[in-house]
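Support request, please re-run this one:
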Amino acid sequence: MRAAKKHDPLQFCMNSGCIEAGCDEAGRGCLAGPVFAAAVILRPGFRCEELNDSKQLSEKERIRLRPVIEQNALCYAVETCTPDEIDELNILWASVKAMHKALAKLTVTPEHILIDGNRFRPFQNIPHTCVIKGDGKYLSIAAASVLAKTYRDEYMQNLHEQFPVYDWTNNKGYPTRAHREAIKEHGITPHHRKSFNL
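Re-run finished. Output below.
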């Protein structure tokens, strides 16, 4: 088994002493499938040296970390916006809507929200902070990135069985050459985002 990449330890929170939720999404750059978002509130004192931005982890590492996150979270939620919602709202605001849906499902109300990225719309008058590359800085955002990514990958792998020509088990809906060639040859499915450059 390859060793996890060394990286600086992530910070537990931005505001100590308050209940803080981290939010991130997966699937913004895809041609097909929903965008997934996760919201995570970690238990105080949680530490995990392996946890990092999901893009810096291998698929095996993400799968191994998912139950660690779920078992050590005070609460978490994963939600989606469909390709139709993405086409209607655009991918940025569909991602934010998915984050709002996930936050609304949390069983504990956060006092502060950490968002990966630079754009957000206020949620229930709860203070929030946008952090560029926050999934590589804060544990709760990194945890949300791992959950969003693993849940979305699982969804696309299941969808692949219905539409194997698009190779979603490997590309997860991203615009690989094989995916684009399959669109040219077979057209699109109801799972493709029509507002994207297919």
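The CA atoms of residues 10 and 137 lie 5 Å apart. DSSP finds six helices and five strands in the chain.
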